[in-house]
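Inputs:
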Amino acid sequence: MADVLVVLALMFVAAAATAAVLNRDPARQAVVLSLLGLGLAVAFTVLQAPDVGLSQLGVGSALTPLMILLTVRKVRKGKGRGRE
Amino acid sequence: MNPWLGGAALLLVGGLGPSLWAAASGGAGRRVVAQNMATLLLCLVFLLLAQGYGRTAYVDLALVVAVLGPAGTLVFARLLLDRDSGDPPGARWLTPVVAVATPATVIPLCIVTGPGRATVKLVVIGLLLLAGGVATTRAVRRG
Amino acid sequence: MSRRVRMGVLAAGLLATAALFVTAFLDMPHFGGAWHPYGDRAVQASVNRRTANTVSAVNFDQRGFDTLGEESILFASVLGTVVLLRQARDERTRAPRPGPVPAALRRYGLVALPATLLIGLYVIAHGQLSPGGGFQGGVVVATALHLLYIAVDYPALERIRPLGLYEVGDAVGEAAYVVLGVAGLLAGSAYLANVLPFGTFNTLSSGGTVPLLNAAVGLEVASAVVVLLARFLVQALEIEGGDGGKEQAA
C-alpha cells in the first residue's frame, strides 16, 4: 500500500513537471509550477522525508509564485512602454 | 491495507489529478481555481497520511498548507486574474467541496485521536482550511 | 561551430551522462531495504544528544558546518539580488495606486496574518522535535508578513516593514550562527560542537545548541526573504522607466 502511494506521487510529479515544460506563458506556467511543488511535497512525505516536504511547501506554495508573477509584471510593464 | 492511506491515495488520484489537468490547460481563471482546489485537498491528504503512517508530527505539514495554500491562491488572484472577467469556471464548486470534504476528513480523525492537544490541532487546521477556502473563493470570484 | 557539430557534441555529452547515470544506479542498494548503515548511526547519535528530530540533529549538530555553508549561500545570493535590483540613476519611482480589495478578503488577511506568523514561529521553535526548523519556519514567517500585500494592500505592508531592521536581522542571523560555532571553540572543543547541556529528550529545551542554531537560521531566512521580496515589489510596483542600459546595448 505504501509503495502504491510512492508510485502515485511520483507519477503526479512527472505529469506536473511535463505540463510545466509544455506551458509556454510564464504567468500560467507559475500555476503549474505551484502544483508541481505540491506534488513534490507529497512525494517527499510518502518517502518519509517530511522536513524536505515542509521546505518545498514553504518555498513553492506562495513565495515562488509571488516572485515569478512580480517579475512577469515588471517585464511586461517595460515591454508595454517600449511599444508605445 | 490501511484505510487512511487508501483515502489519501484516492484524494491524490481523484482530486489532485484532475486539478493538475485543469491547472495545465485553459484560461487563467480555471487554472487558479484548480490551484486553489489542489492546495485545499492537499491539506486533507497530509492529515490522512499522518494518521495512516501513525506519525502525529506529519500533521505539521497540513498545518502549514492550511495557511500557505490560501496565501498562494491569493497571490495568483491578485497578480494573474483579470478583474473584469467575471466568475472563472468551476469557482462555484470551491466552497461546497471544502465545506463537505474538510469535516468529512477532520471529524473521523478527531474521533480516532480522542480528546487532547492533538484533536485541538486537528480542529484548528480544519477551521483554518474552511476560512481559507471561503476567503480564496471570494478572491477568485471577485470579477 | 556548425549546427551539426554542436548537435554531435550534445549527443556525446548526453550519452556519456546517461551511461554514467545507469552505471551508478546498478550498484545502488534496493529501494526500501533494511540495511541503513549511515541512517542507524545518525539516529543513534541524535538520540545520544537527545534530539528527537534526527534530520535537525544531522543538519545543525552532526553536520552543522555544512548548514553554515547553506545559510551563507542564501545570505550572499540575497545580497547579490539587492545590488542587482537597486534603483538605477535613470529610473524614477511612483507611488503605486491602492487596488480595491473586498472587505471579506481584508478580514481574512488580518486574521490569517497572526495565525501564519504563529505557525512559522512554532515551526522554528520545534525544529529539534518535529519536521521543520529555521529554514521552513523562517519562510512561513516571511510569507505571513506578505499577506498584508496580497490580501490587504501594498502601503499596509510598507508600514509594518522597516526594511533597515530586516537587513540588520539578516546579518545578525548569519553572524549568530558563526558566533555560536566559535562558542564551541571557546569551550575547548571543535568549531560548531554541541557544547550546551542536552536537556530532556522530546521537550522544547533539548538538543543543546540545535534550537539556538535553528533560531539563528530562522531569523536570517525570514529577514532575507523579506528583503528579497521588497526588492521585487519595488521593481514591479514602484520603479518606472530607465532601460537605458538595454538601449545602449542595442
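Chain C has one domain: 3-249. Flag for discussion at group meeting.
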